[in-house]
## 1
Amino acid sequence: MSFLDMFNQDLVTSVIRALIPILLAALGGMIAERAGIFNIGLEGMILIGAFCAVTASFFTHSWLLGVIAAMLAGALFALILGYGAVYRKGDPIVLAIAMNILALGMTSFLLVAIFDVQGVFQDPGIVGIPVWRIPVLADIPYLGALFSLTPLGYLALLLVPTLWIVLFRTPLGLRLRGVGERPLAAATLGVKPERYQLGAVLASGALAGLGGAQLALGNVVLFTENMSSGRGWIAVVAVMLARAHPVGVLGAAVLFGFADALGFRLQILGLPPQLTDAAPYVVTLIVLIFTSRRFRKPREAALA
């Protein structure tokens, strides 16, 4: 297979599968960012969501209950950040880093405690999320991949315009953005900033948990230690790159999803997996460099 031969229908399908968990987590991070809480704990929230999705699916034999468990677990885990940063005025960066470490250790411990395995848990009892294929539309070349997704895949794509409408065309979105930009001014208008910030952080955790469910039950049907593998950090970069705008978050998720999918397919050409697995993170570093330059110029101009 040549390099050009890789750009086919299968690559488009792989890109969409890779971007859905990132997009869900990034949309959650965007909501928290709009409320004034910079959530870098998405990595741990994805991991907690993936573990709880697999655990619930295994014991209940229901993918739907697995998805619900992932969403609730992500929101509950995010409560640590919400309470600590909003009500106790702790540093959200320090809290989120601690949460990421906690999630890694806790899921590894529970994997042994509950399933008596280390590293990977894969069992026929785990029920994966089905693919809902829309007839006719799914047969369209290339674009058909958008109409052959899991329910969480459709939800992630629908959330982009929905959140845009909520943020920029509703009173709720106006209050949320006001709390994030001018919390004291919002408080003088009768808005309670703490409630909006806590709600935004919980929504962020719930969406990151759904990203974990998609990763563990949609893309594959298993759980491995450190399964998030940096996707939460990539979602954080997507929020930064998009300046917390839903459409921009989608574009960034597509970029990182493409890098992730292309990295796997480059292994077919004989490139070492250690090199191809680094593709999404190389793109992340490049994006961070250009993003930091873009953010630095306005500040330098203001100081001049």
## 2
Amino acid sequence: MKRRGFIKNAGVLTSSMFLSNELLAAGSFVAGPKIRVAIIGCGDRGVGIMNVMKQLPEQFEIRAICDVLDFRLQNALKVYTSRDLKSYKDYREVLDDKAVDAVFIATPLNMHFEIAQNAIRAEKHVYLEKTMTYNANQAFELIEIKKKYPAKVLQVGHQYRSSPLYYKVKEMIDAGYLGKVTQIDCRWDRNGNWRRSVPHPSLERQVNWRMYKEYSGGLAAELLSHQIDFINWAFNTQPDQIYATGGIDFYKDGRETFDNIQATLRYEKEGMIGNFGATCSNKRDGYLFKIKGSKGTISLLMNQGMFYTEELNSKLEVVDGVTGATKITWNKDGGAPILPEPTKDGTWYALKEFYSSIITNKIPDSNIYTGTKTAIAVDLINKSSYSNTIQNWLPEYNRFDRG
């Protein structure tokens, strides 16, 4: 690692690009009562939320867990032990529980809409995992239901909207650090069949729901939706045209959702092309997120990122010892870290925001309107890939556009 001085060029980098360690704490504590919550869906994601929630004991108290599968309830009970913890197999009993203020919905995608609409009507605060709904029509209907019950918070689990790293990247884009952005390259790859062990063959579709179209939006919904959602947010946009392709190219095991997909999204107003892909048979790139502009490139991981200027070796003046300037560490390939240290897991920040939104009665950044926009994009990707057609963003999709 090479230590370089501060770059004196207001149009490219300034010391304000970097957050202090205090700001890295993010989501400063908002005083208020504990929120009593229930976890509906105790698979990997539901249990993951419970583990993060244990780090925030002053904000949340888990009062109930719910799952249709006994072995998942038993696993969840190992994560969170309390005399007051109730177990349910029917989510409607959770919604009837007056000791529950908020529900976290981490079920298979096809159940998101049903449970969320009933939770809204039961006047619970709702944290609804991504993707918000199985299809666009469900998203539109959920908005209409939520309008009738405006007093409670609904946050969608695109947790990178709550991360200080991703906030800073949005600020950099808004401030023009990247210049004119034309290309976005995203991948979320793994090398594994995505299967979970099944206690009994009769439970195959319930346990491995991600592999069946009846329950799942596949790789686009489960992985790529995060990156698509961030681009929607960072540029205040949505794709105008989508072409996606995919196949069951490696795991010939009876699954229905693709194990290999690639989607190209055209953002006409911005003059951008977004490339979003995922495979289950190669993990070399893992999580890859690059935003490329005429002045620079941002390369992101989940909890850290680098900025690469296009002008470092030609137009920029390097000045040492600028009083008050933040020192920048450049790595061997010419990149500067966006933040001085990695951030926490994005879910930690998202839970802090959910709590703050409830206590202060504000709409979270990842809300029912932004969740709708991303759910539409995912729906169009799946329609395109399964039908081998180009899908267009229709004017009527914008009737609920709020962010």
## 3
Amino acid sequence: MLPLYWLTVQTVGTAIRGGWRPEVSGLEHVPADGGVVLASNHLSFADQLFLGAVIPRHVAFWGKKEYFTGTGPRGALNRGLMHGLGVIPVNRAGGAASDAAFESAVPVLARGGMVAVFPEGTRSPDGRLYRGRTGALRLAQSCGVPVVPVGISGTDEVQPRDLLGRHRPRVAINFGPQIDVAGADVRTATDALMASIQRLSGQEYVPRYAEKKKAA
């Protein structure tokens, strides 16, 4: 485990586990080693924090490429944090640029690492679960690794001030059995994956892609 990631788990992760006491089930489905893709619903930025806090191994998340290309002292600090946490850069432009981001995750999986993917492609705009894109399945197939579905609930209500106050939303993280996607049709397998995530998260399902929020 990367030193900075380990330190973050020991500090931020400990605060999350002690402060919000997330309910975790199915953690035995997450392999202790070896390459694996975590495929989760996406309600909030806090999803990454909670996943990192409850999984006892390094999880590689995605970060916008701008964090890696900034200039000056702030840019250098961001780059150092991203590399220290093992973040994978992603171009939010989509298309071929996003495909290149998936390619950058291949070495992580080849080394036996764990990569978290949010198949919806963006945070849910209304708390419902939207149709999944096939990238997670294509990535898993290309690397010959299994997929572990994850259903998260409650993180859309988490605010930093909750740790100091009495209101702490109930957060639950449910892991499902590993899915072997070798040889499967990626569209069919992705739909089955989203059905599994729906059962784990309890969300209402919407059979269309979620639209990304436009910057103001």
